[in-house]
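Researcher: We're teaching a course module on how sequence relates to structure. For the next exercise, students receive a sequence and then see the predicted structure as tokens, so they can try to spot secondary structure elements on their own. Here is the exercise chain.
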Amino acid sequence: MIPRALSGTLEAVSRQYPVVAVTGPRQSGKTTLVRSQFPDHTYITLEDPDTRAFARSDPRRFLALHEAGAVFDEVQQVPELLSYLQGMIDDEPAPGRFILAGSSNLLLLDSIGQTLAGRVGLLTLLPFSLGELQRAGAAPTSLDDLLHRGLYPPIYDRGLEAARWYAGYVATFVERDVRRILNVNDLERFQLFLRLCAGRSGQLLNLSALGNDCGVTHNTARSWLSVLETLYVVYRVPPHHLNFRKRLVKTPKLYFVDPGLLTYLLEIDSPRALATHAARGAVFETWVVSELLKARLNRGLPPRLHFWRDHMGHEVDVLVGRGDLPVPVEIKAGATVVPDYFKGLDFWNRLSGADPERGWVVYGGEDDQPRARGRVIGWNRIQALLDRSI
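Model: And here is the predicted structure for the students to work with:
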């Protein structure tokens, strides 16, 4: 098992709350993490039809069998169970008593918000970060190999062929999760929608255009995109509010959570094909944003990732946390540092009065370069940026 960066945060939160919920996409390693972290807890998966039927038909008796504590996996399958859990927790609020895991975000969190507010610590586990793979000696040495393979645990834990695994993964979450949540009858059209979203990763989100290209209404496109967010397939980065008296773009940007799933949906069939593909820059940017997102979530922090762009085209790719003093990050897929890489940082620093040394450029090369206009860091050293900016 490759150690997970979230484990320390999970241990700390379990000492503070009687219930801890770990959500994240399917196959991100939630079950492995919670079972290894809480070996003395009884493990129950609500994916099992008989167990699920028991929990739904007689929730009081079901929970009475596990009153000492348990890990409930895929708990969003029986959200009504949480109402009964509330009474048990109020009677005996022992820290770390119940651990919940689920692969649906909004469904689980809505249920928690209604029943366990103030009693639960919420954490999110995404696929591996590069840092986790590097510490385990399992990281790809080539950037294009990393982007093409993605970072889902089964590909590394079991040595699976990436394209074949992603094909099964897409079929699984579309057939099981999407059909369950939306009751979508036209799954082929939804898969087209998914691929159209892949072609827009790293771009401003235009739901009307997305719906038109797919042949569905604006409201349907909005609903389908929400499901992809619920299942941790995509993530929206909102624009930053600081305007400096500028007219700003107010539309969020769309990103996939994993670059390997993205390259599969874009039908990029090898690292060599990715190296010269027109979408390589978008795939690289998607990966860097996902690394920033994972770094914050693994620390139990809210995402707080934004971008900044005005109507004249001036832009900073990502602004990371820290209120009115965010850390600006530019993302460039090229392996050679050129002056244009600093244009966004230069403009931001002039407007905000920020110290140029606070800015970063993550690029597709491997050598760090100290520059007066911002710190340049290679893709394989991104952990140094995460350690200093999160």
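Model: If you want an answer key for the exercise: Residues 162-182 form the longest helix (21 residues). The longest strand covers residues 315-320.
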